[in-house]
Write a structure and sequence with these properties.
Number of strands: 9
Strand content: 25-35%
Helix content: 25-40%
Number of helices: 8
CATH class: Alpha Beta
CATH superfamily: Spore Coat Polysaccharide Biosynthesis Protein SpsA, Chain A
Radius of gyration: 16 Å
CATH architecture: Alpha-Beta Complex
Shape: globular
Order of helices and strands: EHEHEHEEHEHEEHHEH
C-alpha cells in the first residue's frame, strides 16, 4: 500500500534532516514524503528543499501543528498515512511492520524509545527518563487515509494536544487498534519540545475535559 509520510516542522532545522533521512531509509519505501513548513524562520524549509524530488515541500504561515498536519493530509496521495515529528526518528522497519499489521487493524501504533539530545537541559534530564513507552503519539501511528477521513481532521483551534483529541474521537467510532511491541520510534527529548512548554498545559486540560464530556454524551 502506498504510504504518504507527513512531517510538520516549525523551527526545527537542527533535527529535520535526520527525521527525513529516517523516512527515506525505510525497508518499505514510502510513496511520498511531505514536509509542511509551518512558518519557520530558521531555514527548516530550505533543508527540506535540498532533497529535491525526494521530498514534497509545502509552506504555510505559522498556524500550529494541527493545521500543518491537516495541510499534509490534504496534499497526500497515498492510501496510508504516517506522521513523523521533525525531531523524532524511525527505525528502518517501522513502515514495513506497521503496514503488515494494517491487514487486521484500523490504527497501528508501536513502542517508542525516548533519548536525550545533546542540548537537553539538565533540569529536563532530571524530570524524564530514557525508557520505552506505548506509542500514542503522531510519530508512532499508521492508518489508512480513509480511516483518517472518517475521524476528521485535527482540531486547528488547539495549540497542542490535537493528537490526543483526534485519537479520542477515533475511539468513539470503535476503530480497531493494534500496538506493536517493537521499538520503532525514537523520540528526542530536547530543550525545544513543544509538549514541555508549561504555557500549553491549558490546551491539554481542554482536551481532557472534551474527552470526559464525549464519554458522558456519546
Amino acid at each position: 500500500m502506498p504510504v504518504s509520510v507527513i512531517i510538520p516542522v516549525h523551527n526545527c532545522a537542527k533535527f529535520l534532516a535526520s527525521a527525513i533521512d529516517s523516512a527515506l531509509s525505510q525497508t518499505a519505501a514510502p510513496y511520498e514524503i511531505i514536509v509542511v513548513d509551518d512558518g519557520s524562520t530558521d531555514g527548516s524549509g530550505e533543508i527540506a528543499a535540498r532533497y529535491g524530488a525526494k521530498v514534497k515541500l509545502v509552506r504555510q504561515e505559522n498556524s500550529g501543528p494541527a493545521k500543518a498536519r491537516n495541510c499534509g493530509v490534504a496534499k497526500a496521495a497515498g492510501a496510508v498515512l504516517a506522521f513523523l515529528d521533525a525531531d523524532d526518528l524511525w527505525h528502518p522497519q517501522k513502515l514495513e511492520r506497521q503496514i503488515n499489521a494494517l491487514a487486521t487493524s484500523d490504527l497501528v501504533f508501536c513502542t517508542i524509545t525516548k533519548f536525550f539530545s545533546d542540548d537537553c537541559p539538565p533540569e529536563m534530564r532530571g524530570n524524564s527518563s530514557e525508557r520505552d513507552q506505548q506509542g500514542f503519539l503522531p510519530s508512532a501511528l499508521v492508518c489508512r487515509a480513509s480511516t483518517f477521513d472518517q475521524v476528521g481532521p485535527f482540531d486547528e483551534s488547539l495549540k497542542s494536544g490535537e493528537f490526543v483529541d483526534w485519537l479520542a474521537r477515533a475511539r468513539t467510532q470503535d476503530f480497531t487498534e493494534k500496538h506493536l511491541e517493537n521499538r520503532l520510534v525514537k523520540r528526542r527529548i530536547h530543550g525545544g519540545n513543544m509538549t514541555r512548554d508549561a504555557n500549553l498545559m491549558q490546551e491539554y486540560l481542554k482536551v481532557i475535559r472534551r474527552n470526559i464530556e464525549r464519554r458522558k454524551h456519546p
